[in-house]
Amino acid sequence: MIFFMKAVRSQLCAPHASKHASKLGRQISEFQIESPKLSSFSSAMSVAGLFDHEEPQGATAAAPANRRTKLFPWDSVASQLLEPYGESALDAMSLQEVWAAASKGNKKAQYHSHLCADQAADPWHVGAGISLTAAGLLAAMKHLQSEDMKKLIAPQPYTKIEQEIKELEPVLKLLNLGKGSQQNKDTGSFRSAKRQKMTASGTEGLQGTEKEVLDAARAFHKWLNQPKSALRSVLFLLSGGNTFYSAHCAEVVARAAVKHKPMTEDQFADAMKARMHKMPEPATQAGGTSSDATGLFDA
Predict the structure, then answer these.
(1) Residue spans per domain, the chain
(2) What is the residue-wise DSSP string for 79-118?
């Protein structure tokens, strides 16, 4: 299939990596990684499940202390490495680099994933990290099983993906315990829409016995330790360094502007004409400054 093979070629092409090296280096630096590896074959994500390249093994780094362990959406690795107008640095990072940066956190958050919490002192948060990982994978699986995806991906790799989903999906449903009770007090906002989307599937919450959940945890651990995975490979390819999602968001907002601002074709052209020139200086405030010394030095 043309789309699938183009995606593969774009991810395996070395010049493609070097072209974005400068921007990726800047983004990795902001995520507190010092020296990125820009080789597709040493990256945290690869096509090893569909082809024949090896996954690197990650190393453990200590989590920092004295900062909050409650994570907000913007603390997550996905948010930290999101590049809304370009390409994410994630796929250029090794597993070791990802773990070191996630564990290091920032000035406010102790880490960027609950998986980084101390296993002995705070196993509850580690479990929350596993549960949220399961939730993310389940959301992707739902769309991978759509009729459109079956048409888009060539039959041979799709069969491998489908088989892996069939084995892993029941495991992840047992692990997806949700984020706890939340009341939706606001409506009409992006946050409200996001929360409704996350809870609409009805798959959150305890769905098995304790033994079943613990067996599922062991099965998920074994899957993560697999050197190759068709599902991981297709997630890597379809993520496109977050470019497909960010491009989709950009064009949706642009269409919203055209329809509902609204903007005419001439206004679009006028805006770009203005953009090609230096931004004008802000207008001087009418009536002078808000304060002066006239009350003291008046004659």
Answers:
(1) 2-180+203-246
(2) HHT--TTS--SGGGS-HHHHHHHHHH--SSBS-SSGGGS-
